[in-house]
Each structure stands twice: as structure tokens, then as C-alpha cells.
Write a structure and sequence with these properties.
Blueprint lengths: L1 E4 L2 E9 L5 E16 L2 E15 L2 E8 L14 H4 L24
Antiparallel strand pairs: 1-2, 2-3, 3-4, 4-5
Length: 106
């Protein structure tokens, strides 16, 4: 849901984790992105800054928003987040819990 806050456009959305715990997040919209889709028309999506903790790595990254309720994964982590920080073994999954220390909470 888009809304105005201090003269800026923000968005409010809810997510659930693997344990089915729901959280509502509010973030300022930083831009709109045009997303190319295979065999379909491009789609315009809102982009926000979101802090992501993977293992001990914390970074703020741009995230485009789309309803992923019918997908296997609630969020995709792209190579821009991982490059130079993460080594991927495609045979493994859920190998570590997030343990970022001193992460700013808005």
C-alpha cells in the first residue's frame, strides 16, 4: 500500500518468514524500475532500500517489490548483493542463520 509521509511517497507491505511469522514493513520509495519478463510485457515495480543479513554479512540493497505469495521463495537475493561477499554451493540450503551484530533497526 502506498502512502504519504513527510511529503514523500512510502510503501507498507507484509512478509512472512519460514516459521510463518508475519511482519509489516514501511519504507520510502527510492525509484521505480522497469522489469523485463520472459514472453511478457515489461512491468514497472517500486524499489525500496532494505537491510539484508545473510550469515554475518549485512548490507542495504535496493529491492523491487512484487507479490510473491504464490512463489517458493519470498525474496530473491541477486548477484549484486553476493558479489565479492558470498560463495554459493547450489547443493546446500539453509546452511547458517543470520547473525549480524549492530544492525540498525529503523
Amino acid at each position: 500500500t502506498k502512502f504519504e509521509k513527510n511529503g514523500e511517497t512510502w510503501v507498507r507491505f507484509s512478509i512472512k518468514n519460514r516459521q510463518d511469522i508475519e511482519a509489516t514493513i514501511e519504507r520510502k520509495i527510492v525509484r521505480k524500475a522497469r522489469i523485463k519478463r520472459k514472453d511478457r510485457e515489461p512491468e514497472e515495480r517500486l524499489v525500496i532500500l532494505l537491510g539484508v543479513c545473510m550469515g554475518t554479512r549485512y548490507r542495504e540493497v535496493e529491492v523491487n517489490l512484487v507479490d510473491r505469495a504464490d512463489f517458493n521463495y519470498p525474496m530473491l537475493i541477486g548477484r549484486n548483493f553476493m558479489i565479492g561477499h558470498v560463495l554459493v554451493d547450489p547443493e546446500l540450503k539453509y546452511t547458517c542463520e543470520p547473525t549480524c551484530v549492530g544492525v540498525p533497526i529503523p
